[in-house]
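Q: How do we represent a protein-ligand complex in a form that can be generated token by token?
A: Start from the inputs.
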Amino acid sequence: MSRNYYMAGNWKMHMTRSAAAQLAQEMVNQLRDGKHKYLVAPSFTLLETVSAVIEGSNIRLGAQNCAPEEQGAHTGEVSVLQLKDLGVQTIILGHSERRHNYKEDDALINKKVKLALKHGFEVILCIGELLEEREAGKVEEVCERQTVKGLEGVTDLSNVVIAYEPVWAIGTGKTATPQDAEAVHAFVRKVIARLYSEDAASKIIIQYGGSVKPENAAELMAMQNIDGALVGGASLKTESFVPIAKFS
Ligand code: PEP
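Then emit the structure tokens for the protein with phosphoenolpyruvate bound:
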């Protein structure tokens, strides 16, 4: 089964409109001839600007979160309806910064996953263990729980991508070895096979995230079960994101 590589940039809480428009334009120009699937996920306030720049290009527009409700009295939240209105196609959910800094639990993430899928979005569901969980031998337990609970009640995986992001590797410069990452990706694929089917497991894209850089992208992507990258810090500059996105 051949899966297309999916290279995504999570811009986190960086930039204001003019810098974001400039970066998006550079990405459009430099990824025009790229062979993989691409996505940029800017802050909510930058979505409209970036949407206008990447329209008609081969880069998808992503959001970094959404509210668990469609609309109503939810001060400070952003709804899937508002994201759709701005041209967002994909929503990143369950990012470790949401799980650990903003205390989002599996049940809340699952609610958001189901709502986003119901509204036709592609979802990138992030999973991954803390350093102390890795040291306690709980990598599989944590990743299985986050996968099973995150996808509870989801019957069709065709719009679901999983991003394995070991928390200790995010923004730290520490990357999982390709072999360590591959072992978790293969395990998660087995969990999907058990929950859904071998066919669903062979088709689902599992990205790796955690200090992906131009220097390590190719060796990570060479692993059988690693189908792309979710890139944070290195996605903020074309000099680093484009070589990752066009790894060879
Ligand atoms: C991320 O936030 O999803 C991420 C992987 O960040 P970084 O690439 O900076 O480690």
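Residues 10, 165, 170-171, 209-212, 230-234 surround phosphoenolpyruvate (CB under 6 Å). The chain is about 40% helix and 15% strand.
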